[in-house]
Amino acid sequence: MINIKDVANKPHAIIFYSNGLFDINTYIKDYIKSIVNEDKKIDNLQYLDLLWYDNTVKKITKDDISYIINNFNLSSKEKSGKKIYVIKNIDKCNTQVCNSLLKYIEEPQNDVYAIFTCSNIKNVLQTIVSRCQTILIKTNENSLKKIKESLNIDDNQWEVIKVIYHDLDDLTSDIENETLKNSWNFSNSVLSVKETNIKKYKILSDDFKKKSWNEILLILKILLIKNKNEELSELIDMLKLNPIKVLLFDKIVQVVNSN
Question: Left (φ > 0), alpha (ψ -120 to 50) or beta: where does 74 sit?
Answer without folding.
Answer: beta
